Amino acid sequence: MFHKVHHIAIICSDYEKSKHFYTKILGLTILQEVYRKERQSYKLDLALNGNYCIELFSFPNPPKRISRPEACGLRHLAFEVSNLDDIINHLNSNNIHSEPIRIDEFTGKRFTFIADPDALPIEFYEM
User: Residues 36, 10, 5, 66: what is their CA dihedral angle, to the nearest 10 degrees?
Assistant: First the structure.
């Protein structure tokens, strides 16, 4: 019935800051950037390894995301990585600090979390 996840939509509060974070720090590539004047909104289509994955939106005055304590809804965005230590070092070199490394109790795999510029939790899961 389904083929794959087509994309994940994220609404940010500071477009330039989030654009920098997702492209320059996380390394996603820009497929298309559009300014929608009628909505006073940017729409940035981003790819990972050539595959479209994230739609980054800006809107005037979006409401804050409820993050903690945990609320219903999307919990986090997760990226599969080969070497968690390399990712953590890259993040640290960009002044982004991760939570302590955890071990998945079911798989034994290592993972950690950071927050994007709007406190959206992002997980890095080592395969």
Answer: -140
Query: Is the pLDDT score of 3 beyond 70?
Result: yes
d(CA 62, CA 118) in angstroms, rounded, equals: 11
> Which runs of E-coded beta strand occur in the chain?
8-12, 29-36, 41-48, 51-58, 77-81, 102-103, 110-115, 121-126
Q: Record the tokens describing residue 63, joined without a space.
A: 């409401």
Residue ranges of domains in the chain, CATH in brackets: 1-62 (3.10.180.10), 73-127 (3.10.180.10)
Rounded to two decimals, what is the model's pTM?
A: 0.89
Strand, coil or helix: 118: coil
**Contact at 8 Å (CB) between 114 and 122?**
yes
**β-pair partners for 58:** 12
- CB count within 10 Å of CB 124 equals 21
Point out the least confidently predicted range of 30-39, 57-66, 101-110. 57-66
